[in-house]
Amino acid sequence: MSKILFLCSFSLEAARKKGMPTEGIAAERDYTGYFEHVHTVHFPVEPEMSVMIGPRHTVHEFSKGRFGPFAGVKLVNNFLSVAVFLFKVRRLLIRERIDIIRAIDPGEQGAYAYILSKLTGVPWCVSVHADRDLYHDMAGTFLLFGSRKISRAVEKFVLRRAPLVLAISRYIADWVISMGADPDRVRIIYHGIDVSGDEGPGADPGVGFKVPEGKKVVSFVGRLSREKYVHDVVLIAEELSKKRKDAVFLIVGEGPEKEDLKNMISARGLAGTVILLGARPNAEVNRIRKISDVNFCPLSGFSLLEAALSGKPVVAYDVEWHKELIENGKTGMLVPKGDTAAAVAAMDKLLSDPALGAELGKNARDTVKNRHSLEKVSRAKLDCYRELLGINSRRL
């Protein structure tokens, strides 16, 4: 049996705050026992620690150090922190006899994977979950030393040298190829989701979710940030409320735009129409999905899968990978990015025609179950790891 090490930039605490249960992370990454042991490395995070989150999964969190006279010189201190971090992880790779390194992004973590592979000879790959140019244009994210240009240069360096690039969609595969990745080394590995038990009932919309009896529910689940088009939710609610009085919008999540959303809701007199629920546990989010008459996904990754799996109809913007799951009029309603009028029309149609919504919802759920099950996605990832190691399937 083999061992794998993941390189990630977020912390275990951040994952928990996003509603990602540790047992879910452990099960996903050891592929239900295929790996003898999984090591996940988070850097830079505070505090520094190592913790077992499963019988075969250890999380190592490394912080940035402060190096005496260099502590006040940010560039030098950061360089020394990275050097010490790489030394510690190199030691971990050798001590634990790790077989594979996988970086979760093609930026800093990808660069670390490249360096560690050179230092140890352990084969590496990188997964790509977002069009980083698109996210930067919308929210100014994915910077290195405050520069998108530098970050982009690092991403190109990593993608051109990665033995394997695991893209979560055809759209992302095209993006990494445009960044210089060798098409022969790119593999499309869709998000995987637990599709067992998805037939369960939702909650009574009036219980715990502050929804008045008889109201139809439109839900948004995601980070409350500008790149997620969260302000469009309020604008759509305002316009839809002019057409019908029976719809209420539930916004689930936390993020930097929360206060601005509160002000928008108040200024437009939508306090009874748009309800901010804050962050909720995964089980509760799934119940909210299932009591929704429409799930709105302006820009989503895994969240789009959850919405489709609920069996309730999805309205999504035609952006990034959405069209690979949402086929307009068949598995949901796809509208142009930022076209709030088109989104209002699509929601109004679905709220007025429950039979259509049920049909689209069923089709979307069937697509997710057939293409995105954890079992199927895990097999595809294992095939990539076997390819990376150049061994036959009996090794894993």
How is the secondary structure organized here?
Elements: E1 2-8, H1 12-17, H2 22-30, E2 35-42, E3 49-54, E4 57-61, H3 74-96, E5 100-103, H4 108-120, E6 124-128, H5 132-139, H6 148-161, E7 165-167, H7 170-178, E8 186-188, E9 216-221, H8 230-243, E10 247-252, H9 258-267, E11 274-278, H10 282-291, E12 294-297, H11 302-309, E13 314-318, E14 333-336, H12 340-352, H13 354-371, H14 374-389
Parallel strand pairs: 1-2, 1-5, 2-4, 5-6, 6-7, 7-8, 9-10, 9-12, 10-11, 12-13, 13-14
Antiparallel strand pairs: 3-4
Features:
six-stranded parallel β-sheet, 14 helices, disordered C terminus, Rossmann fold, alpha/beta, single chain, eight-stranded mixed β-sheet, 2 domains, 396 residues, 14 strands
Account of the protein in words:
- This protein has 396 residues and is of the alpha/beta class.
- It folds into 2 domains: 208 residues, 3-Layer(aba) Sandwich (Rossmann fold), CATH 3.40.50; 156 residues, 3-Layer(aba) Sandwich (Rossmann fold).
- 43% of the residues lie in helices and 18% in strands.
- It has 14 helices and 14 strands.
- Strands 3-4-2-1-5-6-7-8 form an 8-stranded mixed sheet, sandwiched between helices. The chain has a 6-stranded parallel sheet with strand order 11-10-9-12-13-14, with helices on both faces.
- Helix 3 packs across helix 4 and helix 4 crosses helix 6.
- The protein is globular, with a radius of gyration of 22 Å.
- It starts with a strand and ends in a 7-residue tail after the last helix.
